[in-house]
Design a protein that fits this description.
Number of domains: 3
Shape: elongated
CATH architecture of the largest domain: 3-Layer(aba) Sandwich
CATH superfamily of the largest domain: Resolvase, N-terminal catalytic domain
Strand order of the largest sheet: 2-1-3-4-5
Strand content: 15-25%
Structural class: alpha+beta
CATH topology of the largest domain: Rossmann fold
Distance between the termini: 105 Å
Largest sheet: 5 strands, mixed
Number of strands: 16
Radius of gyration: 32 Å
Length: 405
């Protein structure tokens, strides 16, 4: 029977012991730190292993700054960044961790660590053996360990996502409810019994039905001195309703929420990796079109408006965007120009803006300034609005007369 020889003496030399030994301790979440204390203690006991390899205890450094932080990314793990810096400065001779998943859960961070350890001659150890990243076969094993660690995280996420989606397809996955709805003791969902909350939300929907603009609804709320009900999802449940000053985002959140139309919706947003938040590794969420929602159960509970009105509101809000595109005329704006926001240049087919000339700014002028703003070229053209509006009125009235007769 063959046994593997103890190659610790070959892996660890006097040159390694002349430097520091680093013990990296990590737990992915705060819940694991509180409830899985045996795993944390096992990682701290790696100090005894480093001492058994010949390092004095005063030359053993424990890095536990990343307790409660996932190894999926190294950008927010200050302890991991500190470890990388110490290796790059040539201070490390040994890096011990319970397994590869504690050090990194993505190949970018893992192979960066392996490359630095290979360059500066640092030995990496886990719960079983020591590895020299400068040796081909050890580097191969370490690379496979990193791949398996990343794959394991992917499998965990996939199983959790599939389970949540399957439960949501039955309408049983508990989702945060807006301020206008509450969950009954029997498990159903109904309107908030607070009559003031109901009246305020109905005022928002009625005002939008009339004015067709979220900003106009906000101004109407400010004119009457009315606040909006908000359910701040922080702290332990049940979450109380708070009254906050009206702004455009809060009005839009109400108008975009399908729960107010009595629908149970799952997957309204998705993470876009191309829109990362500055200074973080988190992707910014983007809104998904209604027809692309994975789960949408209509008439799941009482609502404030019908589903048809909700869809009409989404179409109106999409057309109100300032980014003029096909089928987006824009929201009506103030000013004396009749065609502002919808007039199109006859030369380049781009939307024209409006400026007001004259001593008191009373004479509107349609101008196509896209070439000037984008390419520093002369303006395409400009047209006095009064003559264009007069011609438009004549054509419109003639078309209405001919249709009526």
């Amino acid at each position: 029977m063959m046994t593997a020889p103890d190659d610790t003496a070959q892996r660890v030399s006097v040159a390694h012991r002349a430097k520091l030994a680093y013990i990296y301790v990590c737990q992915s979440t705060a819940v694991q730190v509180r409830q899985h204390q045996e795993s944390t203690e096992l990682q701290y006991r790696l100090v005894d292993r480093a001492a058994g390899l010949g390092w004095p205890r005063e030359r053993i450094a424990v890095i536990d700054d990343d307790l409660g932080k996932s190894g999926a990314s190294g950008s927010e793990r200050h302890g991991f960044q500190r470890l990388i810096a110490e290796i790059g400065l040539g201070k490390a001779g040994l890096v011990l961790s319970l397994d590869a998943s504690r050090l990194a859960r993505n190949n970018r961070d893992w192979h960066q660590l392996l490359e630095l350890c290979s360059i500066f001659g640092v030995v990496i150890g886990d719960g079983e053996r020591l590895y020299d990243p400068g040796v081909y076969h050890d580097r191969l094993l370490l690379g496979l360990s990193g791949i398996m660690s990343e794959a394991e995280l992917h499998q965990i996420r996939m199983r959790l996502h599939q389970g949540a989606r399957q439960k949501a397809a039955r309408g049983e996955l508990r989702l945060p409810l807006p301020a206008g709805l509450i969950e009954e003791r029997c498990g159903g969902i109904t309107l908030n019994p607070d009559e003031e909350v109901q009246a305020r939300l109905r005022f928002v929907f009625d005002t939008f039905r009339t004015l067709q603009s979220a900003r106009a609804v906000m101004r109407e709320l400010h004119r009457h001195g009315l606040a909006l009900p908000v359910r701040a999802i922080r702290g332990p449940a049940p979450y109380e309703v708070a009254w906050m000053p009206a702004d455009s985002n809060r009005v839009l959140n109400i108008l975009h929420n399908p729960a107010y139309a009595g629908a149970y919706a799952y997957g309204q947003r998705r993470q876009d990796p191309t829109r990362r938040r500055p200074g973080t590794a988190c992707s910014a969420p983007v809104r998904v079109a209604v027809e692309e929602w994975p789960v949408c159960l209509r008439d799941a509970h009482p609502g404030y408006i019908s589903w048809e009105e909700f869809m009409a509101n989404q179409a109106r809000l999409a057309s109100n965007l300032a980014r003029h595109g096909a089928g987006r005329p824009g929201v009506p704006r103030r000013g004396g120009a009749l065609l502002q926001g919808i007039v199109v240049c006859g030369r380049c087919s781009r939307h024209m803006g409006v400026r007001y000339s004259g001593p008191h700014g009373k004479y509107p002028v349609y101008q196509c300034s896209a070439d000037q703003s984008l390419h520093d070229r002369p303006q395409c053209q400009q047209v006095r609005a009064l003559r264009a509006d007069t011609e438009f009125e004549r054509v419109l009235l003639a078309a209405l007369v001919s249709r009526c007769t």
